[in-house]
Amino acid sequence: MKVLVTVKRVIDYNVKARVKADQTGVDLANVKMSMNPFCEIAVEEAVRLKEKGVATEVVAVSIGPQQAQETLRTALAMGADRAILINANDQDLEPLAVAKVLQKVVSEEQPQIVLMGKQAIDGDNNATGQMLAALLGWPQATFASAVEISGDKAKVTREVDGGLQTIEANLPAIVTADLRLNEPRYASLPNIMKAKKKPLDVRDLGSLGVDVNPRLKVVKVSEPPKRAGGIKVETAADLVMKLKNEAGVL
């Protein structure tokens, strides 16, 4: 079984994002970048499937600038066998464009399962996995907190608003990882050194012949309003009065 796992390079989750002065987007200059946390979980799950003997090969793929090679090397150090970078230069692709590119990669690689993070922490769109499943005509299991592969079926426990839902999907299928699926490992120094020798294929986005023209236009990006300071009340009656008359929540 071949597993294709997607990886995105995003602003490190510990960094406070800054909006550009002209409000056209987020300032990425001199900002620490790292692997999207949900993609890390997907990579970890793919590697665990290989360690269990379920998968025979794990292929990591990323769509982004040349610097995304560093992110792919992290995936290789975690245990992926090889990697593919679709060099999009500085293009910020929309979820539909990403899904179309991945559809092309999937058609060439022919994996039995595609593991993805449920969303990227930069755009928070939570759409690429669903769109890719629709384009491929494959079953999808999103927000996975547990994955079991048996033969040509995947049993996936999903985190939904009402609790947990367990479904069974025929392979090939798309599975998107939620936060509680696993705890990603740290890449050890020996594995980081080995990752430098693993194959990493870099391809130009234009060579795929995929329409990635944007369908959306960002009008303005702004920071959320600053939180106002709290107040102290003397009695419970004062609290109820303020909640009713000032906050309007009662």
What do these coordinates show?
With 250 residues, the chain is of the alpha/beta class. The protein has a single domain, classed as Rossmann fold (3-Layer(aba) Sandwich). Helix content is 28%, strand content 27%. The protein is built from 6 helices and 11 strands. Helix 2 packs across helix 5 and helix 3 packs across helix 4.
The total beta strand count reads: 11
**CATH architect. name:** 3-Layer(aba) Sandwich
Q: Would you tell me the overall average pLDDT?
A: 93
Strand content: 25-35%
Shape: globular
Structural class: alpha/beta
Structurally, the number of domains stands at: 1
For the record, give the distance between the C-alpha atoms at the N and C termini, rounded to a whole number. 57 Å
In short:
With 250 residues, the chain is α/β, with parallel strands linked by helices. Helix content is 28%, strand content 27%. It contains six helices and eleven strands.
